[in-house]
Amino acid sequence: MCIRDSLHPELLLLALIGLSHASELACAPASHPPYAPPPGLLPSNHSAVPCAMVPQCQCGPPGTGMTCVAEIAPYVLSNGSGAAAQFTRAFICHNSTGLSISYDATDNNVYGNLTDCHDHVWEADALEFMIYPGAMSSDPGGNYTELDVGAQAGFWAGAIHNPTGHAPSGTRLLDCNSSGLSSSAEITASGWSAELYVPFALVQQELKETPSVWRANFYRTDKPEGSAVQEFSAWSPTMASPPNFHVPSRFGVLILCSADIVDSRCSGRGVRRPSLL
């Protein structure tokens, strides 16, 4: 649904009209989210991963403050063994130049004091995002981008080379100031929240055109109150033990909606407008 820009907004109906081949990119039906990728997008022997239809952020007449987003939830333990101790969700939408992501993280023990660019924020409370341009239908590894936000607004950004599909062999740090990336984080009454803006030009690598299909995953590192160890959770669990986020074959699927896709999931659900958009 589309909403007006307020914390408790009136819900409005978004009607998507028109039909084209783009509608074939809809996630396959499922009994409940997260939806499955469309048939034929991934090889038949590919393990199941979640899929999200990512709507255009501006889903109403200009100036109305109406925004559509897809919800990325739930996060589960990254090894697939069960639910995470604390709830996490992300909201994502796109415009012509990039992706806008906002996060809500319930947290009874916000920890860490990392505030600078390229701090190792994953050593404390952090939300991580990894993204690859295209379907990655036959590539078990390759190159992708990692973007991490810490609870105290520390940030890490790097281009990852992972030819084996489970162990990165090279990392190129991205400039936090000139890359077009934007990030923020703040402590809330229930934990903490964060926002991230990701320019397509930064993450689509050598592709000249922005693809409609992306592979991506959302992760969290956390230490709940009373726990002596970190907990690792993900939108699409990597099934790795010990925990390993760098398993691109387990990345979920993001499909960018356009105005001519007829699919109810493109209307998203309503939240406040991301400020970094």
Give a quick precis of the structure.
With 277 residues, this protein is an all-beta fold.
Q: Find the structural class using helix and strand composition.
A: mainly beta
Mean pLDDT level: 84
Give the number of DSSP strands.
Answer: 16
Write the element-wise H/E pattern from the N-terminal end onward.
Answer: EEEEEEEEEEEEEHEEE
User: Major sheet, described briefly?
Assistant: 9 strands, mixed
Q: What portion of residues is helical?
A: under 10%
- Percent of sequence in beta strands: 25-35%
For this structure, the quaternary state is single chain
Overall spatial form = globular
Please report the distance between the alpha carbons of the first and last residues. Answer: 18 Å
> Counting H and I runs of at least 4 residues, what is the number of helices?
1
Using the CA coordinates, give the radius of gyration: 18 Å
The residue ranges in which pLDDT falls below 50 over 5 or more consecutive positions are: 1-23
Give an overview in words:
Helices cover 1% and strands 33% of the residues. It has one helix and 16 strands. It is mainly β and 277 residues long. The two termini are 18 Å apart. Mean pLDDT is 84; it is low at 1-23. Strands 3, 5, 8, 9, 10, 11, 14, 15 and 16 form a nine-stranded mixed sheet that branches. Strands 4-6-7-13-12 form a five-stranded antiparallel sheet. The chain is globular. The protein has one helix at 200-203, and strands at residues 2-3, 11-12, 51-54, 70-72, 76-77, 88-94, 98-106, 126-133, 142-150, 155-162, 170-173, 182-187, 191-199, 213-222, 231-234, 252-256.
